[in-house]
Design goal:
Blueprint: E1 2-9, H1 13-24, E2 30-33, E3 54-55, E4 63-64, H2 71-76, H3 79-88, E5 93-95, E6 100-103, H4 108-121, E7 125-127, E8 134-138, E9 141-146, E10 149-158, H5 173-179, E11 189-191, E12 195-197, E13 209-218, E14 221-232, E15 236-238, H6 240-245, E16 254-258, H7 265-278, H8 284-287, H9 294-303, H10 319-327, E17 329-336, E18 344-346, E19 366-368, E20 376-377
Length: 380
Amino acid sequence: MEKFSVLIVGGGPSGMFCALRLAEAGVRGIAIAERNDRAGKKLSATGNGQGNITNENMSAAHYFSTTGSAERVLQKFGKEDLLRSLQELGGLFFADERGRVYPASRQAASVTDLLRFALARRGVKILTQTKISCVSFEGGAFVAEAEQGKYVAEKLVLACGGKASPHFGSDGCGYRLAEAFGHTCTKLSPSLVQLKTDKSLIRGLKGIRTDCEVWVLREKRELCRYRGDVLFTDYGVSGDAIFRASAFALEGDVLKIDFLPQFTYDIVLRILQNKCENYPYMSAEDLLRCVMNSAIGRNLLRVCDLPHEAKSADIKSRLAALVRAAKGFSLPLTGSAGFENAQVTKGGVRMDELDETMMSKKQKGLYLIGELVDIDGECG
């Protein structure tokens, strides 16, 4: 039975950084129990493998919770603190046009390596392939059980992650460990994930990627609005704008897409009307050339019940409806691609069950951090 001053369950970014901060503060006898064969496996895949670690515009306004706020955490350790710590470890970082901060290497694995090197240098023990199945508080200490045996610690940190991307080891087991101490969870749902839609409305668009503005409606009420890439798939939509909108979307909502966000309705309508007058015998399909992606144009004609081969003069009276579809294409949502494909989990252990240091109000010496708790952020 090994004994530690602090046992951290979970070797993801929150667990690794927690261990590093404790070691820097002079704490000794720190161990990380990681179920995978190495720590930081999910961290190495962030930002499409490029390592989007934070954003220049990071603030509590970009994080969501139904039971608390990220404000108090960000005040104690914000973007500047994170970058300063990583730079002191030997990394170089830069921000792109959207404020997303990446390592100069553009390799997420290099950020993981920075943390691994630092943890090894400071004597933090990483117990790989160690899945903690049970935790308890006995005789004034925490006891964690795994196949390898029992571990005893003065303090216990649960940093097990959520349910998103279970192939990285985050299968939701942390919620059960938290519940052993009386904690409760909010409703869990996948976020930063592809959305499933009515497939009949996007037939023929698979593989098309385009810059759009999207918004989600629930009972005609707008929940969010984002500008970015939309990628059409065989089951629905993906892309940056969709990942961001997915934090708000539920089955039964309506996704609206503006295929021409840089132009007003009046400008688009005027261009098409002039084209109709100049080329009265042009086909409806050709009328939309150099206005939008050809496949999207054909799809809009189909959805608006306008034949591709119809003469432009014959559809002039229908142009207003066509432009409305281009500027507000409606896609009923039928669900999402699930936790298996999600980047993060929405919901988690209630924030109001934790104090300002993230320590449990139900068990002294127990801390819950990272994706396990009820806070999730916007994509990027």
